[in-house]
Design a protein that fits this description.
Elements: H1 2-36, H2 39-50, H3 58-73, E1 77-100, E2 105-106, E3 109-110, E4 122-128, H4 133-139, E5 146-153, H5 163-189, H6 212-218, E6 222-227, H7 237-241, E7 253-257, H8 258-269, E8 275-298, E9 303-313, H9 327-342, E10 349-356, H10 364-371, E11 380-385, E12 392-398, H11 400-410, E13 423-426, H12 443-447, E14 456-458, H13 467-470, H14 483-501
Parallel strand pairs: 4-5, 5-6, 6-7, 9-10, 9-11, 12-13
Antiparallel strand pairs: 1-2, 1-8, 3-7, 4-8, 8-10, 12-14
Helix pairs in contact: 1-14, 2-9, 9-14, 11-14
Length: 516
């Protein structure tokens, strides 16, 4: 009987001791963060030294190896996981443009990723694109050495020069031929007088540059499309995947500030002579170009094969520096890893920090990990994803079955900073259906039934952050981040991850998703 009591005592003592140790780790996390929070330092290096990180670029590769090096230096177990390869790579250099006449101005523009630069400084006159075969034949001699204004409004995409794009343009040209024939018949009926019921030729937003191939053959310098400000530029995946180094884009694709475009368009309509000058240094590199996930692990002491996971994506678009999308995911996760490691954290189950490749190319990195780790699906307590901007992590909304566990995991959060009180809410109503997709790296976890509870965030001090302003635009820069929100989010992430990893059980999945 005495031996049994002694055994119970030892178990209780060990539990109290481990709880006390966990408390000390959290205290050290809070203390280190208060004295030396390096979240913004990580963001500075990522965005101001390395820069915009389009997948396939030197900057993206540099960021990948820098992240892995930091994590190894803090004592985490680091895996560089090859996800795939691209046929060519792309690096963006400097770009500039001018209008050369009495009303000259410096031009505000950008070019989509994986599109052509100029051949040094190139100057040329400006014309409007032809809309019919007649118009093309009438002006084809004037196209040589010209910058061509094309219709439509930029949404980020380059001109589609693939066979699909050519086919679409051919159909649209045929439609305009019908419209012109109809208008000619109306004009004939009215003996040449303008008629109110004539139809305008269509302005095609989805396939601009109707005579793209013909204009290129005629020797144009490039195309120019009007763009809302801030300027957004993306890339065309199907064109990229079919590229090789001997068959690269050769026609600059310029997205110009819509206000400047209007001034230039008016001059063209008035048939005034002037020139535009562009110097665009877009560079390609021979492939194959590999891209990698960085997976960093703090090994669990009791349940090493169970996991609490958190992540963000390494890549960004490169017209700016990717400070918000997704520097605001990378930097707090790096700092959370550092804080736990420096505090001597030894959780019961493994904490996994995931820095994903090629999110902007279709969630390729996270999808690859999920599909190649099916044996781990049932042993993932939760995956936290951060990819929503520099706002502060200040709440969680969880299913009823998880509520008690999260109460325990978040209880220290309201003692960190009174400016950012933390709220834990229980989800009400019926469980949602399991998602069939999503727009960030949580998607393939959720699609396959794993928990993806992530922090609710807010802008409690009213800094007026608007995600749409920076999303894939030229304004996605370091100065758009909010240091106090970012630093606090890193601490919150570290504490919640460590506490969840230290619990006796995985989070319950009861009521997580509706059973279909």
């Amino acid at each position: 009987m005495k031996m049994k009591n002694l055994f119970v005592f030892l178990i209780l003592f060990q539990s109290v001791f481990l709880f006390a140790q966990d408390g000390k780790v959290v205290d050290r996390i809070i203390k280190t963060a208060a004295e030396d929070n390096r979240t913004m330092q990580h963001l500075d290096v990522l965005t101001n030294r390395i820069g915009g990180r389009i997948t396939g670029s030197d900057a993206c590769e540099n960021a990948t190896y820098w992240i892995a090096s930091l994590l190894k230096g803090w004592g985490l177990e680091v895996q560089m996981q090859e996800v795939g390869e691209l046929p060519v790579g792309f690096n963006r250099g400097a770009w500039s443009g001018k209008m050369l006449d009495d009303d000259g101005m410096t031009l505000h523009f950008a070019t989509p990723s994986y599109t052509s630069g100029t051949k040094g400084v190139q100057r040329g006159h400006v014309v409007m694109e032809p809309k019919t075969r007649e118009q093309f034949e009438q002006m084809k001699g004037k196209l040589k050495g010209a910058w061509v204004l094309i219709t439509g409004t930029n949404a980020g995409w380059p001109v589609d020069y693939s066979h699909v794009g050519d086919s679409t343009r051919a159909g649209m040209i045929a439609e305009n031929i019908k419209i012109k024939r109809y208008n000619d018949s109306i004009a004939a009926f009215n003996r040449g007088k303008d008629a109110a019921n004539k139809l305008p030729l269509k302005e095609f937003k989805d396939a601009p540059a109707l005579f793209y191939k013909e204009m290129r053959a005629a020797g144009i310098l490039g195309t120019i499309q009007a763009s809302p400000v801030p300027i957004r530029v993306l890339y065309d995946r199907k064109n990229l995947l079919k590229m090789d180094f001997d068959h690269l884009p050769s026609c600059p694709d310029i997205k110009l500030d819509e206000h400047q475009y209007a001034v230039i368009l008016q001059k063209v309509k008035e048939r005034r002579y002037f020139q535009l000058e562009f110097d665009i240094r877009n560079y390609f590199k021979p492939g194959p170009v590999k891209y990698h996930n960085v997976i960093a692990i703090i090994k669990g002491s009791k349940y090493p094969d169970e996991y609490v996971m958190s992540g963000g994506h390494i890549d960004s678009f490169d017209v700016a520096s990717g400070a918000v999308d997704c520097g605001t995911g990378v930097a707090p996760n790096l700092e959370a890893a550092r804080l736990i490691a420096l505090a001597g954290g030894k959780p019961k189950r493994s904490i996994v920090f995931c820095f994903w490749a090629a999110e902007e190319f279709g969630l390729w990195g996270s999808k690859f990990w999920v599909e190649h780790n099916k044996d781990k699906w049932s042993r993932i307590s939760n995956y936290f994803n951060r990819d929503g901007g520099p706002t502060v992590a200040n709440a969680l909304t969880v299913p009823p079955a998880m509520y008690k566990a999260f109460q325990e995991a978040t209880k220290q959060l309201n003692g960190i900073n009174p400016d950012f009180p933390f709220t834990l809410k229980m989800r009400e109503g019926d469980p949602p259906s399991r998602p069939n997709g999503g727009s960030s790296d949580h998607a393939y976890f959720a699609k396959n039934g794993m928990p993806v509870i992530s922090f609710d965030t807010a802008d409690p001090k009213g800094y007026d952050f608007q995600y749409g302003e920076i999303w894939h635009t030229e304004r996605d820069t370091y100065n758009m981040s909010i240091p106090e929100y970012m630093e606090h989010s890193a601490v919150v992430t570290a504490i919640v991850l460590y506490n969840l990893a230290g619990q006796d059980k995985l989070l319950s999945r009861e009521g997580l998703y509706r059973e279909e």
